[in-house]
Design brief:
It contains 23 helices and 21 strands. With 630 residues, it is an alpha/beta fold. The strands form five sheets. The chain has an eight-stranded mixed sheet, with helices on both faces. It is elongated.
């Protein structure tokens, strides 16, 4: 038998007051929860509130991030059909309110007092110590205060994924998992988060024949042999509607109505399918939620969180350090192929978490994401909720991310998205000119001089990288071919980034990073181990890297983003443009030498072959005609 925690007796007494089969806490547990809140001193509450606000500020959301957050969690706009507030009703309060309080900030108000609650699927992959569980539940409480209601399924890595045949051992393991549910609810209550243990089964095992004994399987979405009953989903729906965090057991009923412990991943997959499906009005009329408000709540999950002890998914390109972001549409098979045997010891659940994210996100909206995060990085959950971005952009220079102290550690989380397939096109015959034109004109908000532009591409095209159905594109050309103006008569033409465009509807969803990473792998990163680009039509990392050069208007607000990804830039003599470049990373080890002088100081010395190349780039690029109609 597993020894219960020291303070488990009153908690279990509260659980004994549960309404049979309902999974809803009664007043007895509410009093226990209140006493736990009461045990916090005012100073502890103030410190926790300050930590919460600091976590929001550290996320550093941009204007686009804030708008994205508000679109999901801000209170709905006022109903124009509602009766107007009369002058008599407001006259007595207007002067006092305006004098005491300035006009509220919508972002801050929505962060601290959200109205629109949205669910997230969460796997707490224990076992965790009390200190670790406390940190995790603090993060869950913060997310709840910001409007994201976690639907938690607990699990333990030290138990087999399926229930053993021995009855006594199976009972012991179920008690261990049930104890984990109790711990999660207790720690959530410690941080003033209302939680609801759902001790009844919400999932059922599908009959291989396609029919169940009671007919409840008919018409259900079956995921990996599991489906969620409408009655079971009502427990989740009611909790989300009331802003409570449901904490579920990884169990399911078999065809004989016996409760069986199963893998939490199977329960989460079934929940993702069921929660993303609008309820059938006929079945809703007989459910546990009689009110239309509860029945109509949107249960579609916006996030999947996997909280573990091992951190993100290790990357073959980064020598085992985690992936920052993953485009499942183009990288899923590649990550499985390049997963090294030694990582099964350090990251035993990485591939199963990858499969879980791939399966759940298939049911979730396009903007949804999954985060695989260590319990040591609970603050990353706040940042991910607000920004829906990885801890660091994957398109930043590889050396900066890996070698800079503190940038990437074993605990850096991995963000996963459905993403879009990436293709590399090397001839104009493969390019859909209509779709490419629409993308460029929508992105740049200008009219393309189509005839002249595509005529030039037919002569000078190097390749085009396309993301999805022209959601983004990078066009590279070869400039300066056949000229002898380069210093020392260098024969290689310039690899010029002519256009880099992402459709406005895909800005902020990771497409820009997926596009730039593919661009880097085909140009200045080519030839390196970490440039094994899995994109369709790519060189797969085989070849010799080339300098990538492009230019941008001097007043372009995107220049800051370009600056972070380039090796350098110069302003043209007329001051209208900035010329950026990325040095071929493979060649840097040959042409740039580090010489150590007294005191350990390292100085980079430029070789003579590098002298004058920037002037040549500027001269050749300056001759390229505008792509836009007058």
């Amino acid at each position: 038998m597993v020894k219960p925690p020291i303070r488990a007796a009153p908690f279990r007494a509260g659980l004994a007051r549960l309404a049979p089969g309902r999974g809803k806490l009664t007043a007895g547990f509410s009093q226990i929860r209140y006493r736990q809140h009461e045990s916090q001193t005012l100073q502890e509450i103030a410190n926790e509130d300050n930590d919460f606000i600091l976590s929001i500020l550290q996320a550093s959301p941009s204007v686009r991030d804030s708008r994205s957050y508000l679109s999901s969690f801000a209170p709905p706009p006022p109903d124009p059909s509602s009766p107007p507030i009369t002058e008599e009703a407001t006259a007595s309060t207007t002067t006092t309110a305006s004098a005491a309080n300035p006009e509220p900030n919508m972002l801050v108000t929505s962060l601290l007092n959200p109205i629109h609650r949205r669910p997230a699927l969460v796997k707490i992959q224990g076992p965790f110590t009390d200190a670790q569980m406390d940190s995790i539940c603090r993060g869950m409480a913060y997310l709840q205060r910001m409007g994201l209601v976690s639907v938690i399924v607990v699990d333990r890595d030290d138990l087999p994924s399926n229930e053993p045949s021995d009855r006594f051992e199976a009972q012991r393991q179920r008690m261990m998992v049930r104890h984990e549910v109790e711990r999660v609810v207790a720690f959530l209550a410690r941080h003033r988060a209302t939680a609801r243990p759902v001790l009844s089964t919400v999932a059922r095992m599908a009959d291989p024949s396609g029919e169940s004994l009671d007919g409840k399987q008919s018409g259900k979405q079956v995921e990996n042999g599991i489906f969620v009953e409408e009655e079971g989903l009502d427990h989740v729906r009611r909790a989300v509607a009331e802003g409570e965090i449901p904490v579920l057991l990884p169990v399911a009923l078999d065809s004989g109505c016996r409760s069986r412990r199963i893998s939490s991943n199977r329960v989460l997959l079934a929940l993702a399918s069921a929660m993303s499906t609008r309820p059938d009005p006929a079945s809703a009329s007989t459910s546990l939620s009689p009110t239309p408000t509860t029945r109509d709540i949107d249960l579609t999950p916006l996030r999947l969180l996997v909280i573990n002890r091992e951190g993100g998914i290790p990357s073959y390109a980064r020598a085992g350090l985690p992936h920052l972001s993953i485009n499942l549409a183009s990288e899923y098979s590649y990550i499985n192929r390049t997963f090294l045997p030694q990582w099964t010891e350090t990251h035993p659940t990485a591939l199963s978490s990858l499969r879980l994210a791939n399966g759940c996100l298939a049911h979730m909206p396009r903007e949804a994401s999954a985060l695989i995060v260590s319990h040591r990085s609970s603050a990353a959950m706040i940042a991910n909720l607000i920004t829906n971005k990885p801890a660091h952009s994957a398109s930043l220079p590889h050396a900066l991310l890996v070698e800079s102290e503190g940038r990437i550690t074993r605990d850096t989380p991995t963000l996963l998205r459905k993403g879009l397939p990436v293709r590399v096109l090397r001839s104009m015959e493969e390019v859909d000119q209509e779709k490419l034109t629409a993308l460029l004109e929508k992105s740049f908000r200008r009219v393309l001089d189509r005839e002249a532009f595509y005529e030039r591409l037919r002569n000078d095209l190097d390749f085009v990288i396309v993301v999805g159905d022209y959601a983004g594109a990078a066009i590279c050309t070869l400039e300066g071919k056949g000229t002898s103006t380069y210093p020392h008569n260098h024969p290689e033409p310039i690899c010029y980034l002519d256009k880099f465009a992402v459709h406005p509807s895909h800005q902020g969803d990771g497409t820009v990073d997926f596009l730039w990473v593919a661009l880097r792998d085909e140009t200045y990163g080519l030839g390196l181990l970490d440039a094994s680009n899995p994109s369709i039509g790519s060189l797969r990392g085989v070849g010799k890297g080339r300098d990538l050069v492009w230019r941008s208007r001097a007043d372009n607000p995107v220049n800051k983003w370009y600056f972070e990804r380039s090796s350098g830039f110069v302003r043209t003599k007329d001051g209208k443009w900035k010329v950026f470049w990325c040095d071929a990373e493979q060649r840097l080890g040959e042409l740039w030498k580090e010489r150590e002088f007294g005191g350990g100081r390292l100085v980079k010395v430029m070789e003579k072959e590098e002298v004058g190349r920037v002037d040549w780039w500027e001269r050749e690029i300056g001759q390229i005609p505008s792509a836009w109609a007058a």
